[in-house]
């Protein structure tokens, strides 16, 4: 394109070209056609510089990887929003009649897909999200006419009945995930995650720095964030990280992190019994509505309370006592439920940090759970339209 | 796709390989055009249609207006281009905002009007490419340039992926001539282009996303009113974040284009070393500020029609510039504050002509400029006026509030922002290249290797650049 120069006008508060700059820009050439930019390249031995830089970066990355491996980390698949979305898409791509697991970390870590597959021939779709009420995912399934299968809904009292959804965004993101994120996720799952132990948000630079012993600023009450607790496979089959069993210090740290929520004032939305009950009521209403939609399509639903022990159990019973929450949920939805407290075979399993089962215990738990779930599904009649939850 | 993603790394490797093949120049340009459409479609494929509409309308309008004899016909073709581009921008970006404001206006006169649901996704980068294509028809209309000779060159100017979604906002005269003759990145261009890419990624992934974003979020996205220290540190964190994010993007874009053998203009010139606001706008988002100057401020009269008209043009330009950033009154206030700053500075310059600050006064005026710029960032970052006032009250020391930011965020924010400001002062009359020219190879290799290492271990989650939303 040929250009010509026209008359110029001053910039706001300035004038012609600024003499100090080595390289002029459009800021120095008001009101004219801008010429092709010129970019100078410093006369340095860039080939040798790059060679040195790449070697240094490789050595440092290698050292970083070794450091985390020495800490007990092994390469594995990331529990990212994109990997959740990938599993969610299976329903849209021909697996609408599958068994789907929704819930929080107890459903994610405690239900072992290989054991389930061994016992039933079917490998469920794992859609549980840690730190997140199962309701957003249940509502998402309820709104999807393609889903006509069976759903096991994990109920962690402290999350389900408060509506807390640490990773609730994952659902909306999954539905608007563009090709770019999918391609990046595919590349990550094939070229990065299976090979690098450090590739985990828990070992990201800023997280590691934030975790150091910083002086506490007077007036602040910094809380320790939840640390790495699990390892995942490519289809989100997940189990508790073995370090929580073998490393007493790490296990105690995990317990201290959970304990932070056992004391202290409740959040403003739950600071009176009336507010708390209203919040619980709201969550049960959401569950009733979602279940009604699902059952109208013939979807079979079962609720699950996975094991929790020690102070964590006491905490949950304190803020969400069974009679006021779980029992009411089952009564209002008309859905059968499996609570670990009702089945001896689901109790007495190893739970290093009170909230999740160790990997071997999770296998035992799944083996005991599956017959109960299958039995519930077999006994659940397909409801006709207009009948069901109250 | 975003530059800081594995998808882009793979995409760029393929584009580089194709561009290096011994193919005819036209074939290479077609490759780049197709690649650019794929780059854009990777977000949301249907939005490629908008790119096509913008491209075709402006090509056609420019062809017609250059051949038109009568001024009224020329003007009509120019207006067609302006209306088509601004109409598209208005519909997607400001539709909901206009409806909401109309509803509020009706309510203020007692009419209850509920606007229809507006569930329109903003096409990424629409503000950038509509301004780029507009500059094409406007340059032709203003007789600053002749239209492109080939549609392919013009289409590639609009779509060229390094600048497509967040600038630098290219003028046709800057880029179209580069497509007229064969270009291929030399080894040195590839090597230095990758240096720029690494530097940009370091700014974006490590500084902006890794450290500064969280501190800004903790203040601006919290319900609690911040005290003085928290309000200032949260604002400084955003000030550093938006610079590292956007300058990082521009640096990567320039580096990517250089690897392919093309030159793109600077978009930032160490803006936190600005002394005065006209100086700031010659250093911050240069391609936008010069676009607004050339196609809005000057046509509004600039400084050629008396003082009153100059101030009106200045304020009008800055208010619209604010609105360009987002469909919210907080952005308008941000622009308005800059308009007021520029107006006051203009008055002072007229009152004290020939004033040259000494070294101490220069630093003091620079700090004053930086501080006042930080005040404007409050409106840029806050999602509502109530939040903006809450932060401003905090900055003024009025809030008696409990501390929010833990020590780590105070320390890292202050360290990074101080580093950025000091670096800008060191560099205020230099270019990056002129400084690198004087650094020996070993420190350069160490710095480059460290930056690459830190980018990798920060593990960016591929979060979008802030300016994509504009």
Rg on CA atoms of chain B, Å: 23 Å
Largest beta sheet of chain A: what is the strand line-up?
2-1-3-6-7
Number of domains of chain B: 2
Q: What is the architecture of the domain at 95-177 and 226-379 in chain A at the second tier of CATH?
A: 3-Layer(aba) Sandwich
SSE topology string of chain A: HHEHHEHEHHHHEEHHHEHHEH
Q: Please state roughly what percent of the residues of chain A sit in beta strands, choosing from under 5%, 5-15%, 15-25%, 25-35%, 35-45% or over 45%.
A: 5-15%
Class from secondary-structure proportions of chain A: alpha/beta
Task: Calculate the terminal CA-CA distance of chain B, rounded to whole Å.
Answer: 16 Å
SSE layout and pairing:
The complex is a heterodimer of chains A (390) and B (470).
Chain A: H1 46-70, H2 81-92, E1 99-102, H3 105-110, H4 113-120, E2 125-126, H5 135-142, E3 150-154, H6 157-160, H7 169-175, H8 179-192, H9 205-210, E4 230-232, E5 238-240, H10 243-246, H11 248-259, H12 273-296, E6 300-305, H13 310-319, H14 326-333, E7 337-339, H15 359-379
Chain B: H1 6-20, H2 25-41, H3 48-67, H4 71-108, H5 126-141, H6 151-159, H7 161-164, H8 172-179, H9 187-220, H10 228-259, H11 277-281, H12 286-297, H13 306-325, H14 329-351, H15 359-381, H16 385-395, H17 407-427, H18 432-436, H19 441-458
Helix pairs in contact in B: 1-2, 2-6, 3-4, 3-5, 3-6, 4-5, 6-8, 9-10, 9-17, 9-19, 10-15, 10-16, 10-17, 12-13, 13-14, 14-15, 15-16
């Amino acid at each position: 394109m040929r250009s010509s120069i026209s008359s110029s006008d001053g910039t706001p508060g300035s004038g012609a070209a600024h003499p100090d700059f080595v390289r002029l820009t459009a800021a120095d050439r008001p009101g004219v056609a801008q010429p092709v930019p010129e970019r100078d390249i410093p006369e340095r031995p860039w080939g040798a510089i790059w060679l040195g830089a790449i070697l240094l970066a490789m050595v440092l990355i290698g050292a970083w990887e070794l450091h985390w491996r020495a800490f007990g980390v092994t390469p594995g698949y990331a529990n990212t929003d994109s990997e959740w979305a990938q599993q969610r898409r299976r329903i849209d791509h021909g697996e609408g009649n599958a068994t789907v697991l929704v819930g929080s970390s107890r459903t994610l870590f405690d239900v072992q897909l290989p054991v389930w597959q061994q016992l039933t021939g079917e490998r469920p779709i794992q859609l549980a999200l840690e730190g997140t009420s199962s309701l957003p995912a249940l509502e998402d399934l309820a709104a999807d006419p393609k889903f006509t299968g069976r759903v096991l809904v994990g109920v962690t009292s402290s999350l389900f009945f408060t509506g807390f959804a640490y990773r609730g965004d994952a659902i909306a993101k999954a539905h608007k995930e563009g090709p770019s994120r999918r391609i990046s996720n595919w590349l990550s799952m094939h070229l990065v995650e299976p090979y690098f132990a450090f590739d985990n948000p828990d070992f990201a630079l800023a997280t590691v720095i934030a975790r150091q012993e910083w002086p506490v600023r007077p007036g602040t009450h910094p809380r320790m964030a939840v640390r790495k607790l699990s390892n995942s496979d490519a289809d989100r089959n997940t189990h508790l990280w073995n370090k929580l069993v073998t490393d007493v210090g790490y296990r105690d740290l995990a317990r201290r992190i959970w304990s932070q929520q056992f004391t202290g004032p409740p959040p403003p939305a739950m600071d009176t019994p009336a507010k708390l009950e209203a919040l619980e009521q709201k969550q049960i209403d959401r569950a009733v509505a979602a279940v009604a939609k699902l059952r109208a399509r013939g979807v079979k639903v079962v609720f699950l309370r996975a094991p929790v022990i020690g102070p964590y159990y006491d905490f949950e019973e304190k803020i969400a006592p069974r009679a006021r929450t779980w029992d009411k949920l089952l009564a209002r939805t008309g859905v059968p439920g499996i609570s670990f407290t009702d089945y001896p075979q689901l109790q007495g399993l190893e739970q290093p940090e009170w909230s999740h089962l160790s990997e071997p215990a999770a296998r035992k738990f799944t083996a005991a759970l599956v017959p109960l779930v299958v039995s519930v599904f077999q006994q659940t009649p397909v409801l006709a339209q207009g009948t069901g939850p109250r | 796709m975003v530059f800081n993603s594995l998808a882009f790394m793979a995409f760029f490797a393929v584009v580089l390989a194709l561009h290096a093949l011994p193919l005819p120049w036209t074939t290479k340009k077609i490759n780049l055009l197709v690649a650019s459409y794929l780059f854009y479609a990777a977000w949301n494929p249907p939005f490629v249609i908008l790119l096509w509409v913008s491209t075709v309308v402006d090509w056609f309008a420019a062809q017609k207006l250059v051949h038109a004899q009568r001024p009224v016909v020329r003007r009509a073709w120019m207006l067609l281009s302006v209306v088509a581009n601004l109409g598209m921008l208005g519909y997607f970006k400001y539709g909901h905002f206009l409806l909401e404001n109309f509803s509020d206006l009706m309510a203020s006169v007692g009419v209850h009007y509920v606007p229809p649901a507006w569930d329109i996704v903003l096409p990424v980068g629409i503000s950038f490419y509509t301004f780029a294509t507009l500059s094409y028809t406007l340059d032709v209309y203003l007789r600053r340039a002749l239209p492109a000779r080939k549609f392919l060159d013009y289409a590639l100017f609009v779509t060229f992926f390094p600048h497509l979604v967040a600038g630098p906002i290219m003028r046709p005269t800057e880029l179209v001539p580069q497509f007229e003759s064969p270009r291929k990145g030399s080894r040195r261009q590839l090597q230095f282009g990758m240096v720029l890419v690494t530097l940009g990624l370091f700014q974006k992934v490590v500084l902006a996303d890794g450290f500064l974003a969280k501190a800004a979020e903790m203040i601006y996205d919290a319900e609690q009113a911040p005290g003085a220290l928290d309000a200032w540190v949260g604002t400084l964190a955003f000030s550093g974040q938006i610079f590292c994010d956007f300058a990082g993007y521009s640096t990567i874009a320039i580096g990517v284009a250089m690897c392919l053998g093309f030159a793109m203009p600077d978009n930032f010139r160490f803006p936190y070393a600005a002394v005065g606001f006209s100086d700031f706008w010659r250093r911050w988002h240069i391609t936008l500020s010069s676009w607004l100057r050339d196609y809005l401020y000057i046509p509004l009269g600039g400084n050629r029609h008396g003082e009153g008209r100059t101030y009106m043009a200045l304020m009008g330009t800055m208010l619209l510039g604010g609105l360009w950033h987002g469909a919210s009154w907080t952005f308008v206030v941000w622009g308005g504050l800059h308009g007021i700053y520029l107006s006051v500075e203009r008055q002072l310059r007229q009152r004290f002509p020939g004033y040259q600050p000494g070294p101490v006064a220069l630093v003091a005026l620079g700090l004053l400029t930086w501080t006042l710029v930080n005040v404007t960032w409050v409106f840029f970052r806050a999602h509502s006026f109530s939040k903006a006032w809450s932060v401003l009250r905090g900055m003024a020391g009025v809030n008696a509030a409990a501390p929010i930011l833990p020590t780590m965020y105070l320390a890292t924010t202050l360290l990074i922002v101080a580093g950025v400001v000091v670096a800008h002062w060191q560099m205020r009359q230099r270019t990056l290249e002129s400084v690198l020219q004087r650094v020996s190879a070993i420190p350069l290799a160490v710095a480059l290797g460290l930056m690459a290492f830190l980018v990798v271990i920060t593990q960016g989650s591929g979060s979008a650049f802030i300016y994509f939303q504009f």
